[in-house]
Amino acid sequence: MRENITVINHPLLKHKISMMRDKNTGTNEFRKLTEEVAMLMGYEALRDLPTEDVAIETPIEECMAPFIAGKKPALVPILRAGLGMVSGMLTLVPAAKVGHIGMYRDEETKVPQEYYCKLPQPIEDRLIVVLDPMTATGGSACDALAQIKKAGGTHIKYMTIIASPDGLEKVASEHPDVQIYVAQVDRCLNKDAYICPGLGDAGDRIFGTK
Ligand code: PRP
Ligand code: URA
Q: Considering the domain 5-207 in this protein, what is its CATH number?
């Protein structure tokens, strides 16, 4: 496994992702599970946030206590499905900025088409956490990361719930400076470039559009 890939292994994550995979899990529950999985993954992905000691008074005495330091991190979901991970991450970092990158895969070619991009400014010196539950061919993630770098982003993490082996390798090799957090690496892609066993179309399951 490449150095910039962290597979987050936890029985709670596995259990929740198995529930997401089940085709009988409805929209409401799927959405809630996506939030919870994002929060559990975020706890690990944000482990190296810098802190600084600040003087405070407890009811007992004065002390120096650590608080998160530096510019507020930014979350950047890849639309649509990445939106499902935002609220879980905001539970951890309520003051985070939120940018958006809109992309859809062309149904025939599977090549990502960008239709929207709005990123928080200034983007330099800020941790950017890109969110997309599914990494299939890896095309959407690669293009989104390239777009963020073009806009000036330098400190970038990518959080994805399920990846195909080839998609993960593509993102990790094209963006060796981006730390990738993934909860499950699945078997392969099918002929329609869907992840197997996967969970189907994450956007449709989050928004109830199919
Ligand atoms: C899905 C998913 C990823 C992309 C992954 O989005 O949320 O963004 O496919 O595929 P890739 O790794 O092969 O690029 P989709 O294009 O279906 O758009 P949607 O979220 O709006 O449904
Ligand atoms: N996008 C999804 O939502 N699921 C897949 O399996 C592949 C792309």
A: 3.40.50.2020
Torsion-angle region of 22 (φ positive above 0: left; ψ -120 to 50: alpha; else: beta):
beta
Confidence (pTM): 0.97
Which residues touch 75 (CB under 8 Å, ≥6 apart)?
A: 86, 89, 90, 93, 96, 97, 98, 99, 129, 131
Tokens of 188: 């392969």
Give the pLDDT mean for 187-206.
Answer: 97
Strands 5-7 and 179-185: parallel
Q: Is 134 in the pocket of ligand 1 (CB under 6 A)?
A: yes
Ligand 2 center to residue 199 CA distance, Å? 8
State the pLDDT confidence band at 1, using cuts at 50, 70 and 90: confident
- Using left for φ > 0, alpha for ψ between -120 and 50, and beta otherwise, residue 47 falls in alpha
Rounded CA-CA distance 206/161 in Å is: 14
Helix 27-45 × helix 11-21 angle, to 10°:
150
Domain boundaries along the sequence of the chain = 5-207
With a 6 A CB cut-off, is 163 part of the ligand 2 pocket? no
Among all ligands shown, which has an atom nearest to the Cα of 187? Answer: 2
For residue 158, what is the enclosing H or E element?
Answer: strand 155-163
